[in-house]
Amino acid sequence: MTLGTRVQGLRHARGLTLQRLADAAEVSVSMLSSVERGRKAPTVLVLARIADGLGVPLADLVAEPEDSRVVVRRAADQDTVEEPGGWRRTVLTPVVPGVNFEWIRTTLPPGCDAGTFPAYAPGSHEFVVVESGTLRLTLGGRTVELDAGDSAYFAADVAHGYANPGREPCAYHVAALIMRPRAAQPR
């Protein structure tokens, strides 16, 4: 796998546009695009900035994986984000360039509404399993309440929201296959 393919795969896996990654990495969009297409060999400084923008160590960006069929993500390397409102989400799965799958564990404190997430591209899917507590899942205009041990599936091409209406913390897992819209092809 080429460096440009790795950068592009990691960018897509994180749902970043060229502009957003360029801003985060403090490099120009044209430089980033040229790196992804293999048209420019970036300096170590530019590579370090891109790695920082992607949130990966520089070594992970430039090293060839020994066996790309097996990717391990240790618990210590999982990304946990503390969101406004006191809720937390942890991305459990490794990031694999070109694979649009994530497994996330989320914890909502009592009475917390994590908000509504926009619809993904057609062909996107989410599976939800409640580990503990009660989860209110809102899909478009429909609401479903799930208790510990319950699971649900939905086509994720609709706006969807997660909330904990209960008095106990709610922990749940989301396995998501998120399709990305194809970029327009030049004519």
TrEMBL record:
SMART domains given in the database record: HTH_XRE
Domain annotation HTH cro/C1-type: ranges: 7-61
UniProt KW keywords: DNA-binding
Gene3D superfamilies, per the entry: Jelly Rolls, lambda repressor-like DNA-binding domains
Family matches, as Pfam families: Cupin_2, HTH_31
Entry keyword annotation includes Nucleotide-binding: no
Stored CDD domains: cupin_XRE_C, HTH_XRE
Protein name stated in the entry: XRE family transcriptional regulator
Originating species: Streptomyces cuspidosporus
